[in-house]
Amino acid sequence: MTTSYLRKATKADLPAILAIIGEAKEYLKEQGIDQWQAGYPTNDDIEKDIDNKISYVLMVDGKIAATAALWPGQDINYKNMVEGSWRGNPEDQYTSIHRIAMSSKFRGQRLSEKMISGLLTISTETGFNEVRVDTHPENIAMQKVILNNGFEYRGIIDFEDPNESTTTRYAYQLYLD
């Protein structure tokens, strides 16, 4: 039987996380998706996530299978919704899932859903009942993972990033009981 669980990332995990991010960038490129093709996320982004204790890894039989960041509080990137709207009060606090990536060695095993499920548990355990996530309009696989985890499509956000050629993202929201 396979053992899997989510835990906070440590500095010792950095090489494995950076390798997974690199594989994800290559995977997106192979699919013709321009997400993460201009430098983001950088090594510094990942290190800051670890330092800020918002970086998590999915462990599968003792190996790091996936990584993601879970940001607490309001996300500036979600302020500029150009189509659609968020549910709830604009002042509400929530968590945001960012930089989710799966190791190529574990791709196709539906582990992204386990990763998100773990992040949802952490969200409720830390006092947040609203979770938001976004993805590139062409990243159909991630859109399916997001929807399969109960998120509701809320619209389109746009953010400024000189390193990204496409700054439009599909935005999703989930309320937890």
Automatic annotation (TrEMBL):
GO terms for molecular function: acyltransferase activity, transferring groups other than amino-acyl groups. Residues 4-177 form the N-acetyltransferase domain. It comes from the Bacteria. SUPFAM superfamilies: Acyl-CoA N-acyltransferases (Nat). InterPro entries: Acyl_CoA_acyltransferase, GNAT_dom. This is Acetyltransferase family protein.
